[in-house]
Amino acid sequence: MLEPVMFKGGVYKHDLVLELVEDLGGYVLQRNVTQAEIILLLLIPSDDMATMESLVKELRGELTRAPLAGTEVAVVTPTLAIHHLPHVACDVAEYLRRFGAKSNMIGMARGVGKKIAQINEFEMDLINEHDTAVFLFGNFIDCILGKEKLYRNIEVPVVVAGGPEIPKGDLPYAFEYVSTVGRQAHRSRKASEIASLDKIVAAVGRALDGMRKEIEMDPLTTSPPRVMDAVREQIPDIERSFSPLPIALNLNGCRIKLPYDEYSREVEKVAFDEGVTLGEIARIAPSRMKNYIVVRILPMSETGFVF
Q1: Containing H/E element for 97?
Q2: Alpha carbons 134 and 72: distance in angstroms, whole number
Q3: Sign of the torsion formed by the C-alpha atoms of 152, 81, 131 and 207
Q4: Looking at the domain 72-215, which fold is it?
Q5: Which of 131, 139, 226, 277 makes a 20 to 30 Å CA pair with 163?
Q6: How many CB atoms lie within 10 A of CB 67?
Q7: b (16+ CB within 10 A) / e for 164-199
């Protein structure tokens, strides 16, 4: 099992960390360099974590678990209008990125009004392409309870956030509810506001860990990072994508940001050393997001093997 971690340390000798990751059979998901400091998002085999911790200690760096690394999170608001708290939505989306997640903000077309708010099939499919979703509501209990129909049929775990305290039993379709994240007309700067964002990150992390346990019970045929590396090697055009993250990882696959009509056949033909192609071990489908390519890796129960 690969464990998601974040390394923070000096640029000096950080290549030793990269070499060890490769030797252990891990993956480097993201690399950010800021002057004299570097931040690495890594996937490390659980059995070899002590080896990595020993090296990080020697380099006087910091190694922390990052459950959001290698995932996509949808941050959903009823609309993007000013009365549906765009400030909080931006804060949540940005804060999730700090912990390794790829967050996408989604504002629904007909989310206004407690009684008439709706979610259509397109929006539902788009949210389900993510690993989990955070629904941001306001300060009124009746409104939060009345809008559970917006996420009732969402397949991925949903974390609901709002202002008032609400017992968990009152929101049966939510994975967790986080209070003190209501409507506000300013960016989150106070310690109490940052603490509320930490609660959302913790709740999303618990949801993702639960999904990881489910995947462990029926492992994927191969890991999403290995698919990412194979696509990068065999489809050079991916480097020409204008997206800042050409391949976004999910727990059960990835989103390849190339046009489906032009590149789906090439993606299906991506080959592995074991003698199989990606099309044989995964479902390749058009994404609801800009007609990108969504790859969903089949579990061992369907293919009969793991590599």
Answers
A1: helix 86-98
A2: 11
A3: negative
A4: Rossmann fold (3.40.50)
A5: 131
A6: 21
A7: eebeeeebeebbbbbeebbbeeeebeeeebeebbeb
The answer to whether 24 and 48 are in contact (CB under 8 A) is yes
Q: How many Cα atoms are found within 13 Å in the side-chain-facing hemisphere of 196? A: 25
Burial label for 103, CB within 10 Å (0-12, 13-18, 19+), is: buried
- Across the strands, what pairs with 102? 72
Query: Which parts of the chain sit beneath pLDDT 50?
Result: none
N- to C-terminal Cα distance for the chain? 13
For 220-253, the pLDDT digits (tens) are 999 999 999 999 999 999 988 888 789 999 999 9
Structure tokens at 116: 């008439």
Sign of CA dihedral 179, 157, 206, 53: negative
**Cα 199 to Cα 178: distance, rounded to the nearest angstrom:** 7
Residue-wise pLDDT tens digits, 186-229: 777 778 888 999 999 999 999 999 999 999 999 999 999 999 99
Q: Which two tokens stand for residue 134?
A: 């955070």
Q: Are strands 72-77 and 102-107 parallel, antiparallel or unpaired?
A: parallel
**What is the CATH topology of the domain spanning 2-65?**
Alpha-Beta Plaits (3.30.70)
Q: Contact at 8 Å (CB) between 178 and 200?
A: yes
Sequence ranges of the domains in the chain? 2-65, 72-215, 224-303
Q: Is the CB of residue 169 less than 8 Å from the CB of residue 177? A: no
